Amino acid sequence: MKKVKYWLRNVFGFSGKEISGFGVLTIILVLAVAAPFFANLLYSGKRAEATADIRKLDSLKALLQESTANSSDIQAAVPSPSDSFPISSFNPNDLSVDQWQTLGLQQTIAQRISNYRQKGGTFRIKSDLLKIYGFPAEIYAQLKPYLLLPDSLTYTKKEYSTTPSAKIEKRVTPEAKPEKEVLSFDLNLADSTQLVQLKGIGPGLSRRIITYRNKLGGFYTSNQLREVYGLDSVVVEEVLKHGYIKTPILQQIPINSATVQELDAHPYITPKIANIIVDFRKQHGKYTSLENLYQIRALDKGTLDKLAPYLSFD
User: Fold this and answer.
1) Do the record's keywords include Membrane (predicted)?
2) How far apart, in whole angstroms, are the C-alpha atoms of residue 78 and residue 72?
C-alpha cells in the first residue's frame, strides 16, 4: 500500500489527502461497475424461486382436478337402489352376489349374504334379511314388497292315529300353542338356563347368544340380537317378549392402549381395521374423541356409530 501511495505521489504529484480521496473514489467506481452483476445474480435467484413456486401451484391444481374427477367417477359407479329396483318379484335365496349388487347392495354385504347361504342359512320370512350384519334398512324397505317370502311363519302339527294309514295334518299358528310362563329378564345378565326356556332356543343357541354378548362387551340395544349368527327373526321376537336391556354397563376398549389383537377380538373390528387404528395412533398420537377416528377413511360412519359405546378415550 505504501508503494502505491509513493508511486501516485511521484507520478501525479498527489498530496496525502488527494491520495486518500483517490482511493475512496476508486472503491466507489469498482462497486458501481460490479453492482449490476450482483443485482442480476440476486434477481435470477428470486426469479428461479418464483418459477419453482408457480410449478408447485400448477402441480397442486392438477392433483386437485384429478382427485375431483376420481371422486365423481366413484360416485357415478355406485348403483342407486331406485335405479336398479327389481321389476318383478324374486326369492332372495336364489340371488347371486352380482345380482344383489344390482339391487344397490355393497359388494361386502352381498358376499356376506352368499357366505350365509353357503353355510346352510335360509331366508324364511322377509325380515330375515335384516339379520345379515350391515343390511341397509332403507334398501330392505324398498325390496320388501317384491320378496317372495311370507311376512311370518305358521307351524304344521301332525297327529297320527293308532293305524299307520290314518294321518291327519293340522295347521296351527304359533299363538295357538300353549306357552310356558317365563319371567322377564335382563339380556345382559341372562344365563343359558333362562334362555333355553324360550321357544325355539336350545342349548346351542343360548351359548351362541351369551358368547356374542361377551365378545361385544354387553348389549346396548335389542337390535344387536339380530347380529347373532343363526338367530332368525322369529326367535329374536320370542326373546324380546321376555328379555329387556336395563341401563347396560358395557365393557369398553381403551382405544389409546389396546393392541391389534385386543381390537380384533371385537365383532365390529376386522383385523385390517385393527391394524389401521393402531398405525394411525402411532403416527398422530393418542385419540381424544370419536372425531379423531372419523379421519380414518377405512372406517365408515355406520361402523363407528355402532362401535362408539364400546370405546374409552382415557
Assistant:
1) yes
2) 10
Specify the length of the chain in residues: 314
Count of domains for the chain: 4
| Sequence-ordered list of residues with C-beta below 8 angstroms from that of 97, at least 6 positions apart, any chain | 107, 110, 111, 113, 114
State the Cα–Cα distance between residues 306 and 206, nearest whole angstrom. Answer: 23
Query: Does a structural domain hold residue 83?
Result: no
| pTM above threshold 0.70 | no
Task: Give the H/E segment covering residue 171.
Answer: strand 167-172
Is residue 82 pLDDT above 70, yes or no? no
Query: C-alpha cell of 92?
Result: 332372495
Quick check: 83 pLDDT over 80? no
Domain span holding position 97: 92-146
Q: Has residue 82 been placed in a domain? A: no
Give the domain-ending residue among 18, 45, 77: 77
Q: CB–CB of 260/271 below 8 Å?
A: yes
- CA dihedral of 189, 192, 197, 200, whole degrees rounded to 10: 110
Instruction: Tell me how far CA of residue 255 lies from CA of 31, 104, 144, 291, in angstroms.
Output: 68, 34, 39, 13
